[in-house]
Amino acid sequence: MKGQLLGLIEKFKGKKILVIGDIMLDKYLKGDVSRISPEAPVPIVTVTGERFVPGGAANVASNIASLGGNVRMAGVIGNDDPGELLIKELQRRGVGTDSVIIDKKKPTTQKVRIVAQNQQLLRVDYEDTAYIAPATENELIRSIQSSIPDSDAIVVSDYAKGAITSELMRSIHTARNNQYLIVDPKPKHKALYAGVSIITPNLKEAREMAHAHDEPGVLGKQLVGELQSTILITLGDKGMALFEQNGNITEIPTKAKEVFDVSGAGDTVVAALALALAAGADFVQAAFLANHAAGVVVGKVGTAVCSIEELQGSIDRG
Q: Which fold has domain 2-24+56-107+128-317?
């Protein structure tokens, strides 16, 4: 299969992918710990640097751009400094931002992580998870509807921060033609995903969606039947399990050599899936490519992307 996978990667370049979802800014404060606070039994972090990277659905878009795709981001930010910074970071990575809508009543979702000696000590979230206002929703829908016809594949990256609504999903289903529709889900929105091409829950999400604590083989079959979609359950260090609508089941062992940080690995999975399917891969080939891409990013610290060269290298090494 190695030759087939490498050939598919060559077709990634220029594929038009529309990413719709909850976008956020990830901020990393890096520092050193050498003493404990006299005020409370907590470490004192002396900050030595900070960096900002697109997170959530914006990390999906960043991964697609890094893998050679032509990607457009659709979502909502606040009228604030983190939102402005997020737009700049996306544009710097080659992501189209014309479909990012400003909502003056909601802040930009931001996750601040404090890291010392490559160990995350604390995360602070700034967010408002209420659904977007009807006016914002309508503006986002109009922008999406104009972008879908020119897209080779569509990704919905749902972090349950308010951007993914029932009306938004209905509009995507209506406007979609024959494009693949890939969903990174949240269990609370399970009913909205029926009939999409492929859904990528992790094991915890799959169990919540199925309302059962069964093993992956049982969960996958149940969710395929309920949602009439292909299901790819990600299993951390155990790899992935693919359940197709034709009844085929494929177990895919992990390709990670070392795991430093799983942050954003699911984003990389859906990014690689979208490009692979747009390039002509079947579900099995697409899942193998996504597994290799995820294996690359979990070997990095923090929210990260997989480059096309890293993906090719992972496949070459087998």
A: UDP-N-acetylmuramoyl-L-alanine:D-glutamate ligase (3.40.1190)
